Amino acid sequence: MIIASNVSKQFGKLKALDNVSVTCNKGECIALIGPNGSGKTTLIKSILGMVVPDSGFITFNGNNILHNWQYRNQIGYMPQIGRYPENMTIGDVLDMMKDIRGHKGALDEELIQSFGLDTLMKKRMRTLSGGTRQKVSASLAFLFDPQVLILDEPTAGLDPVSSEILKEKIILQKKLGKLVLVTSHVLSELDGLVTQIIYMQEGQLQFHKSIEDLRADTGEEKLSKAIASVMLKAQV
Amino acid sequence: MKKIIKYVMTDILRNRIVLVYTVFLLVTSFSVFSLEDNNSKGLLSLLNIILLIVPLVSIIFSTIYVYNSAEFIELLVSQPLKRKAIWLSLFTGLTGSLSIAFFIGAGIPVIIYQANAIGFMMIGVGILLSVIFVAVAMLAAVQTRDKAKGIGVAILLWLYFSILFDGLVLFLLFQFADYPMEKAMIGISTLNPIDLSRILILLHMDVSAMMGYTGAIFKDFFGTGTGITISFGVLLLWGIVPVWLATRKFNRKDL
After folding, report:
1. What CA–CA distance (Å, rounded) separates B188 from B185?
2. Mean pLDDT, range B89-97, rounded to an integer
3. Quick one: closest CA in A to B67, which residue?
4. Which pLDDT score is estimated for A236?
5. Which pLDDT score is estimated for A149?
6. Taken in order A102, A105, A111, A116, is the CA torsion positive or negative?
7. Distances (CA, A) of B230 to B122, B166, B187, B190
């Protein structure tokens, strides 16, 4: 569904992405893992067209995304740090997004209810806590029932109850045959959620494996231990 | 695109600055016209105020507004929208609200006191200046990532167009006083939209008779229909070129 070929991006001297090629298909739940500054967010932003790669290209359903914008109709994006116009209320933001998207099908407002945002509709964005902002971001990502979900650190800043709600929602979407891309540092949260792992380091793609292969290769059952053993091996 | 313009406009109107700007222009215009016994003298005083205030407010307000909408822009870019549409909507929203503010604040008093060709030309020039300086501000804002630096650049640009440029022209005139500079001055004046607007309007007023030989040459050019058309064309270019450059830059910008 999403294919990136030899994508490179440089910010000044820093190589954020170095010849990265990945293929993501429907029905998969892919975890993007790597240390801070390994290029995970840059890769996600490149897929969204927010960052323009220096070389290489990305296709979405077979179409190059460069100069293309309609494809974003099928993506729900939850940013790492959700930034919204400060003067708008939660209701305003949701209404504006509905208005701009002009979505025809049914809206998926389940998360708004389960996060309890419907009682906060009149609150201005600048008064919200980090966690509530994350809830707004998550609700927006799922609102238009997109085919692809891109979630950048979705559970950071969420309380345990909310992050459990979000996880349930992600599993449900995966079962519906959607593509889910998640980055997270909390590896234990990804257990039972993801089917594939993309591991990045210093802008380079280290490996892209299914979770079964990774378990077989490392002999570890838990994802966090498996990744730790991979990281140790890389150092030796 | 219409939808984004709508959101930008409501956001700007919620911001009180534009309202204050409108009221300020209204108060100044009415007081200038009622202070002078002769309406065309009043227009001259108003011209000087407008040539200073309109570019200043347009460029500073737009630069700050673009930086403050960084979140809004980021949010929109991740949505199925063309980048060009986002940027141009921002431009249209800014020029629209600032032009309306100018029209209400200065245009209506001018129509009441001086509803003739010069009056309408001044309204046109004022609106064009609003557009031009919004365009320049957007170019300055897209070029620099840092907010403080961007606003600094905007202030410097205003200083350059309002004050420094005149100093440079005077310096040139004195240096080359022995040569016939009159025709070249027409060319130089197109390099600054504020100067161009000032000359364009001054030459259609009675005071132009006091401007000597240079004034006569200017009148030869700016007084004619082609001169006016060319000047307005140059002013339009001053609006279009910065927006075009800024849009190109924004299309490739990493957010």
Report:
1. 5
2. 94
3. A85
4. 63
5. 93
6. positive
7. 16, 21, 11, 10
pTM of the full predicted structure?
A: 0.88
Interface contact flag, A51 B80, Cβ < 8 Å = no
Q: Are B26 and B109 in contact (CB under 8 A)?
A: yes
- A149-182 in b/e form (b: 16+ CB < 10 A) is bbbbbbbbbbeeebbebbbebbeebbeeebbbbb
Q: Give B147→chain A minimum CA distance, Å.
A: 17
DSSP structure string for chain B = -HHHHHHHHHHHHHSHHHHHHHHHHHHHHHHHHHH-SSHHHHHHHHHHHHHHHHHHHHHHHHHHHHHHTHHHHHHHHTSS--HHHHHHHHHHHHHHHHHHHHIIIIIHHHHHH--SHHHHHHHHHHHHHHHHHHHHHHHHHHH-S-HHHHHHHHHHHHHIIIIIHHHHHHHHHHHTTTS--HHHHHHHHTT-HHHHHHHHHHTTSGGGGGGHHHHHHHHHHHTSHHHHHHHHHHHHHHHHHHHHHHHHHHHT---
Is ipTM > 0.95 here?
Answer: no
DSSP A147: S
Residues from chain B contacting residue A100 (CB–CB below 8 Å): 3-4, 76, 79, 81
Disruptive mutation site among A54, A83, A151 for chain B (greatest number of B CBs within 10 Å): A83
Query: Can you point out the beta strands (E) in chain A?
Result: 2-11, 14-24, 29-33, 55-60, 63-64, 75-78, 148-152, 179-183, 196-201, 204-210
pLDDT tens profile B187-220: 888 899 999 998 888 888 877 767 777 777 788 8
Distance CA B205, CA A15 (A): 62
Residue in A with minimal Cα distance to B82: A69
Strand A29-33 and strand A196-201: the pairing is parallel
